[in-house]
Amino acid sequence: MARVLVVIVLLVVGALGGVAIWDRLDQAGHIPHDEKTIVYSSDWQNGEYKTCSTLNGNGYKSPEHSARPQNILCDGGVPSGRLEDGKVFKVRFWGRTYIKTEPLETSLLWNCRKNGGDDPSITCEQKQDRNQ
Question: Structural domain of residue 107, as residue ranges?
Answer without folding.
Answer: 33-126
